[in-house]
Amino acid sequence: MLTQNKDNKNRNLNEVAKNLTTALQSIQDPDLKKDLESIKIDNAAEVPTSDNKRCFLVQVSEESIGTLKKVHQELVKKLESRFSNPVVIVPNRKKINGNLYRRYRGTKVPRNQTLTKVYDEFLEDILYPADIVGKRIRFPKHKGRVFKVQVDKVDKEAVEYKLSAITASYKALTNRELQVEFN
């Protein structure tokens, strides 16, 4: 079932993660049970959304990305029916180089660990069943940056009901404002 990552085995899972684990252990579907055994939760939190509701932000270990992508939609549907809150599942990507890439003189620079790349991967993972068509950065007068993401119209029904959960989760992960549009 959903268990702790090996790196975090000395730390106890928080209460939200325990509730999610027990909910997933109660799933009786034999096809899903096999795949759920290999998914490991690193962290889980309740994130407040803009419409005074709450959503679950579940961070899953890097090793379980392959199996998560196979069962993502079914897993999210089961969890949302159980808790009646939107659920957002993302892999736990911690490694960000920042300005350290300047130290790699003469060697190949790991661009997949830059801040921009990691944040773009978070965005793709949060919007997973949907395809991102375009990205824009806007600078309103009395605000900081606002990231506008354009999602394909075909995926509108898969994402639209949890837009506030998506924007709140992205804000919790990256501290960036996000707007999702459909094109």
Descriptive overview:
The chain is of the alpha/beta class and 183 residues long. It folds into two domains: 1-92, K homology (KH) domain (GMP Synthetase, Chain A, domain 3, 2-Layer Sandwich); 93-183, 2-Layer Sandwich (GMP Synthetase, Chain A, domain 3). The chain contains six helices and seven strands, in the order βααββαβαββααβ. The chain has helices at residues 15-25, 30-36, 65-83, 115-126, 156-159, 163-174; strands at 3-4, 40-48, 54-60, 87-91, 132-138, 146-151, 177-182. The strands form two sheets. Strands 1-2-3-4 form a four-stranded mixed sheet. The protein has a three-stranded mixed sheet with strand order 5-6-7. α4 packs antiparallel against α6 (163-174). It is globular. Residues 1-11 have low confidence and may be disordered.
Q: How many strand segments?
A: 7
Rg measurement, Å: 17 Å
Strand content: 15-25%
Oligomer: single chain
**Class per helix and strand makeup:** alpha/beta
**CATH fold-type name of the largest domain:** GMP Synthetase, Chain A, domain 3
| CATH structural architecture of the largest domain | 2-Layer Sandwich
Number of helices: 6
Mean pLDDT: 82
How can the largest sheet be summarized?
4 strands, mixed
Which strands sit side by side, in order, in the main sheet?
1-2-3-4
- Counted up, domains total 2
Shape: globular
Uncertain spans:
1-11
CATH class of the largest domain: Alpha Beta
Q: What share of the residues lie within helices?
A: 25-40%
Secondary-structure element order, as H and E? EHHEEHEHEEHHE
Termini separation (Å)? 38 Å
Relevant CATH superfamily of the largest domain: K homology (KH) domain
